[in-house]
Design a protein that fits this description.
heterodimer; A: alpha/beta; 4-stranded antiparallel β-sheet; 12 helices; globular; B: 329 residues; alpha/beta; 10 helices; 12 strands; 31% helix
Chain lengths: 337, 329
Amino acid sequence: MSTPIPPHSAPPVLEVEELRTSLGSRRGRGNVVDGVSFSLSAGETLGIVGESGSGKTMLGMSLLRLLPRAAQIVSGSIRLDGRDIVGCTVAEMRDIRGAEIALIPQDPMVSLDPLFRVGTQIAETLRAHKPVAAGQAMSEAVELLRRVNIPDPELRAQAYPFEMSGGMRQRVVGAIGIACTPKVLIADEPTTALDVTVQAQYLALLQRLQRETGVALIVITHDFGVVAQICDRVAVMYAGRIVEQAEVGRLFDAPAHPYSRALIEASAAMANEGGGRRFPSIPGEPPPLFGRGEGCAFAPRCAFARDRCRREAPPQTSAGPAGHAVRCFYPLEGDAR
Amino acid sequence: MTTASPTRPLLELKGLGRHLTLARAPFSREATRTVSILDNVNLAIAENETVGLVGESGSGKTTTARIILRLDSPSSGQVLFSGEDVGRLDGRALKSYRRNVQPVFQDPYSSLNPRLSVATIVGEPLFVSGEFAKAERRARVLQALNAVGLQADALGRYPHEFSGGQRQRIAIARALTLQPRLLILDEPVSALDISIRAQVMNLLDELQQRMRMSYLLISHDLDLVVRVADRVEVMYLGTIVESGPTRSIAKERRHPYTRALFDSKLPAHPRERRAIAPIEGELASPLNRPRGCPFHPRCAMATERCRVEAPPLRADAAGHATACHMVEI
């Protein structure tokens, strides 16, 4: 295990407090991000894990202020290097996005423009934030391609996205992400579009880029393998809330929330070659966005739920060592395995 | 590949090949090219057995499934079902084959028609077979829904009203209505969340035990395949590079590609973190298929011989076969 960075060893570059984002539709209105708080220091990697519908992508989009029309941030703050960007105007955000907080989107097949050469697309990002001439931007783009391990970068800068393999396209969007050396980089499901052997290569690349630039990395994923491989800290999301936050080794060894524990057990069981044919599963399904009840959102699926869990939502409390926090009235103790 | 099994397999692929002829570009002087998608694939599935087919995207897994389902036809080789050549079936015999071999696809969001009710979706195979009266169809649909853990109130509802896991249950119910002997499961859980994956895999296991079906489980997820399959076939660029009993494959990992697949698995715990990526490069395009062994450009052990001569798939006495010059049998 690489040395984890202890919480608050450096001043945080990103501080999110009580963030609430609501989404409206004909069927009603609900909080897709519901009172989320965390902070992140330079050089640190935070994993945000959750299943589909948990709000992890909406949280990422809230941080970038790239929410769809139907969704708005209703309360809370996002301090990027001390400045609250919740109140920033559209024009201010355009300067901040890409330069100070950047995104590596999920599917490079969709996020790259099929009509432009990849070198041009990288240069475009550079020129949007820096007063550089076209020729200069292009040679910087070639340099970025070299840094993300694209062979023959001069030649490849002239290629169109369709001429590249999936793994190469993923590295191109990585290059766009780090182009303006942002302070915070959000990687949304960095491995789902990739094959197994290429996943390992890409995660190794992300780690190297982080070491070189000192960027604070947020990895949004549903895969505990990704968390185990590259994250220092983890936040587990369920129904819009962070139900548990901890240093990565601590979360795997002693998860305090019944949901985190069930998820870790379910994914460990999938990876266990000698485990027989039955898989431990979590009964039921995640709650719908509209009409979530008063109590803990996980209570209907929780084996340990009592009456209080169904009536009140549990506040965040400390679960042992510094930096380990949980939202559960009856947190688990002891080792998961 | 020769297995020691004395009984005839339920399904057998013999020397299966699939080539595509590429259209010539307008005004081009180049001759038309043929591209090989599958090359000499041999595979057997016994009664009540689960065979796992693993490989990365572009390896030919889905093409194999499409040929078995007769959604595509092979350029060479045969598909045998209970010893009969599937390519020659027509009329009633083909209908009966289709009843015995049913698919479950990866994405339950696109494999269920959003305009049809669950009753119509699940009842469609029965309707198409033309052998069941309305009342019987309804009874069988209900039975299939119950088998996958859904109730009668699902009948009048539409796919959008269900979650991903429930939709995959509906797709499985549809495959079950005709009481098939073989299910082709093409990435059946990769579109689902972790907590739901386990539910669906457990359901498939229960159904197999109860209905004595055979499964062809196609997946890129090595963990999953190793966990549930009796035999594993590892595919690379349209050829099978390693094949054998699951335990033996998981333990010995003879082919360098199989080893790379196992080594590329993400860690289950942060203390098992890897310092470097275990293998470089990506699967080549079938358009520029490497000469010799298809894996040699990425293989650390490759020699001159691997660059010119494709290794044949050779089996040992236990039925564990490997296509690699460097492996002694």
